[in-house]
Design a protein that fits this description.
Elements lengths: L6 H12 L3 E6 L2 H13 L3 E6 L5 H15 L4 E4 L14 H29 L2 E6 L3 H4 L5 H21 L4 E8 L5 H4 L3 H7 L11 H12 L10 E4 L6
Parallel strand pairs: 1-2, 3-4, 4-5, 5-6
The protein binds NADP nicotinamide-adenine-dinucleotide phosphate (NAP).
């Protein structure tokens, strides 16, 4: 699973390990990954770390292949890593647009493509892509991010249709505002302004997202595919 060094990814990794999965942790920072892996092993779970920059999509695809060859299987792929490079559309540079599309969308595509072969062989697979409500509602200042996250729905629904006959499911979990480093950057004032529009009157916690991902990865979700599941405390309802 990607983006496992902190935030939502860390919570997903801990939960999947708690549910009995061997978890392969991927992000750029080896130190961050090792801290999460140590937490997993300390609570009796099993994990391994691979530092990889998803901006290099070829390297990420090769890593997915290497991991599935090493273990002889790949049951669950969680594409969680994501970046923002916000700015109003009229001032957004090509570089900032491309960088966000590359990490938040293209790496997801190449990761899924590399995972499909072992999943097809096993006639089983769970692909879970982490989107955002920005991709559903749009968000001023996030043309690049919202475009990438919206595209994950089209990608995931297509994979659901292409792979359903092989019992491979593919879904998107779309978080609202979750307390992580990504939203820390917004500052307290903006967070206070957002709160009244969230029916559940709190920002989400990484564990809120991890619980939904763990459900999608479980046997109980075997008849659920091609969906975008919004976990936002009701913000977008
Ligand atoms: P975060 O705290 O900023 O963590 C991002 C994770 O992605 C880190 O583990 C980071 O690790 C990894 N990452 C970033 N760029 C990478 C790259 N080029 N290659 C490999 N790994 C990379 O973010 P978060 O809030 O947990 O968000 C996780 C996902 O949820 C993202 O896809 C985000 O868009 C989505 N989301 C978050 C919120 C929210 O409110 N927090 C809302 C909607 C959607 P390294 O820095 O070590 O590489």
């Amino acid at each position: 699973m990607t983006g496992a060094s902190r935030g939502i990814g860390r919570a997903i990794a801990l939960k999947l390990a708690q549910d009995g999965n061997h978890v392969v942790l991927v992000a750029r920072s080896q130190g961050g990954l090792e801290t999460v892996a140590a937490e997993i092993t300390a609570s009796g779970g099993s994990a391994e770390c691979h530092a990889c920059d998803l901006a290099d999509c070829t390297a990420y695809a090769a890593l997915v292949e290497q991991i599935s060859e090493k273990h002889g299987r790949l049951d669950i792929l969680v594409n969680n890593a994501g970046i923002t490079k916000d700015g109003l559309a009229m001032r957004m540079s090509d570089e900032d647009f491309d960088a966000v599309i590359n990490v938040n969308l293209k790496s997801v595509f190449v990761g899924c493509r590399a995972a499909l072969r072992p999943m097809m062989r096993a006639r089983f697979g769970r692909i879970i892509n982490i989107g955002s409500i920005s991709g559903i509602t749009g968000n001023a200042g996030q043309a690049n991010y919202a475009a990438a996250k919206a595209a994950l729905a089209g990608l995931s629904k297509t994979l659901a249709k292409e792979m359903g006959a092989k019992s491979i499911t593919c879904n998107v979990v779309a978080p609202g505002f979750i307390e992580t480093d990504m939203t820390e950057a917004l500052g307290e004032k903006i967070k206070e302004q957002i709160l009244p529009s969230i029916p559940l009157r709190r920002l989400g916690k990484p564990d809120d997202i991890a619980a939904t991902v763990a459900f999608l990865a479980s046997d109980s979700a075997g008849y659920l595919t091609g969906q975008v599941i919004v976990v936002d405390g009701g913000l977008s309802c």
